[in-house]
Amino acid sequence: MTLDFTPVWQGWPQLVHGAVVTIEITAASLLLGCVLGLLIGIARLDPSKRLVYGLATGYVTFIRGTPLLVQLFLLFFGLPQFNILLPAFVCGVLGLGIYSGAYVSEIVRGAIQSIDRGQMEAARSLGMSYREAMRIIILPQAVVRMIPPLGNEFIALIKNSALVSLLTIADLMHEGQKIISVSYRSLEVYLAIAFVYLILTSLTGLLLRHMETRLRAGGVVQ
Amino acid sequence: MSTIANPIVAVRGIGKSFGSHRVLNDVALSVQPSQVVVVIGPSGSGKSTLLRCCNALEVPQEGSITICGTDLVKNGQLIPDRELNALRMQVGMVFQSFNLFPHLTVLENVTVGPRQLRKMSKAQADAQAHELLAKVGLAQKATAYPATLSGGQKQRVAIARALAMQPRVMLFDEPTSALDPELVGEVLQVMKALAREGMTMIVVTHEMGFAREVADVVMVMDAGQIIEAGPPEQVFSSPQNPRTRSFLQAVITRN
After folding, report:
1. Which of A124, A125, A130, A141 has the most B C-beta neighbours within 10 Å, making it the best mutation to test the interface with B?
2. Rounded to an integer, what distance in angstroms lies between the CA atom of residue A69 and that of residue A160?
3. What is the pTM assigned to this prediction?
4. ipTM of the assembly?
5. In this complex, how many residue pairs, one in chain A and one in chain B, have their CB atoms less than 8 Å apart?
């Protein structure tokens, strides 16, 4: 048997288009994930605030303990039963964002808790409120520590985003499958798709390493 | 307890336990304007906890604390957050481990409080910070980051940071304990100058020389109680309590 990459070359514009959709959906989900993760992470700092802590912990437990595919199907096929019909792209971003938020929240919580307790005490002793101390003193230091693990999360999200092809979203995976359905060249097309994902994740990794180096050079990271 | 003038800090009958461990037991303390109170005692005696109660970094479970006549803790109840923040602006705190903000320059460390909380303009806050940094001998370090400073320099910046809020009283929690011996002097010098200017101070320290020279009142704590208080010459030369005697003996032998 011989490999025939002709369908890949012919379908290249489609694959590029799919890759763009993958980037868009991943970036939007990460943004949502970061916003959710920040809120949930902060909510999980203080177990004595039972309601907030309990809700946030429930969220993290459910999202991390169930398959992403099930969560996506709940949004895409489940919500219409309540006459909530969201466009596929919105479902994809919501699903991936909510999923990623649970993981980002642990990154946020870990980074905040890694900041020395004396920082909060010093800020409060000046007269800052908890919120002011968080915003001006703690978070700026914590954010720097979040960057490396957030990079890993971003890469994981790029790969997980392939699942949204099952919601009829024309991402990289979906475009590849369309090419296969007319050419029957599964091996070649999946190899090509894998290669494109590899490029996306590698570029992201490089970009993040570059960012980290610059932060270190700027003295922001000790 | 003295009632000559309105005390800056008045602590009445505070008590605190961590679990079954009693750290403070019916402690009272009154600090008059411009007075320097030095608290000494063996480690674990509750002196740091007492000091941290004075700006509510620890909250006593019993008793009351007033700062400049305003309640901070009343019968073991902390005042609401908004009032607490306002009151803390009156109380400067210097920590054993400095706790400078590492992501801010020396100048920003000293201006962040006044700008955020006193709503001071940048120009005004910068001018005040330069003045304070000159006072602690670090005028040339304004643009440096804390990581590049020595321990003694860090602690002097921390003092300037606290002073920038123009507090009515300064609390020092073992300010020289984390320093290399040769750097202790520069910090004590700044504190002495501050005392001479009439700053009200409560100092927890193991520096007996400082206590002897600067303190108006020396308090000795042991097992969560103040076991002796008086002018330094009295406490150091003719201590009344046998536990004070054995503590001083141990400290002097060490030196």
Report:
1. A125
2. 9
3. 0.87
4. 0.93
5. 65
